[in-house]
Amino acid sequence: MTINNLNKRPLLVLIALVLLAGWCCRGGNKTTHTPNQKSFSLPYQLQEPSQTFKLPNKLVEISGLSVINETKLACIQDEKANIYVYDLAAKKVVQKIDFGKNNDYEGIAVVDSTAYILRYDGNIYEIQHFLKDSLKTQVKHKSWLSKEFDTEGLCLDPTKNRLLIACKGKGKNKHKKRGKRDIFAFDLKKKTFTTGAVYSISWEAVQAYFEGQEELTLLEQYRLSSGRDTPFNPSGIAVHPITNEVYVLSGFTRMLAVLSPMSGKLLHVELLAPRLFPQPEGLSFFPNGNLLISSEGNGSKGVIHLFSTK
Q1: What is d(CA 54, CA 20) in angstroms, rounded to the nearest whole number?
Q2: Helices marked H in the chain — which ranges?
Q3: What pTM, to 2 d.p., does this model score?
Q4: What is the Cα–Cα distance from 209 to 265, expressed in whole angstroms?
């Protein structure tokens, strides 16, 4: 690639993102899809949150969240080894828990009294009794995954007693897959990582979903201008507590995908409005199915949006 082309690439990426943003602002998620995708109906209106919580400066780069109880959330931001307990009723951080050395932490999953923290290279930190003031027990689970997978999303999959790990990167060596992003698992009983993907999201599947729609043209423009092999690069993940469907965020291109829990089939993809989601990075559910999506501030305050089921 020539120097001139390299210099043009950031501008082309910016143009593609502006086009995507403009499409979302026009209410672009109200489109008609091919017949085999009409059976799924997303139970949320993602352009109309039920509530919005503006976060303090310490969470401007919120990278993950997980429900603790009906009013409290465990949140992390990607530069500090801290868990921030955010109280939705009080609308403020009510507790900060230090769990180690600062690094790039991207996901959190609360399982009973234990918090699991995901680092960018796939390693998982287990902090037992994390809400207690006394000294906490911490266990590091070293993963075979690496920085090339750029692990970003972590959540509990209660149906199989495991954590799901969403990868933004395409991996390396025999696991490197062009045009596809994988989701791996961590067995909570055996404390082991799967060596094969349990779910995948391919650019081919996204293309098929948007076939004949304006979204596909805009996403392809972004893919080509950015030099990426796929515009869907996961940043967050959560399992629906009632249907067990797997919800996956893509941060930079602001998308939400839904996968079948059994087949892994792509059921739904939706572009998110940039006015609400500057950079969506975190997903979690309340037991009743109400959805939480967090977004980094990207020049403004970080936010958490609550979406009640229709």
Answers
A1: 24
A2: 3-25, 203-209, 214-226
A3: 0.89
A4: 11
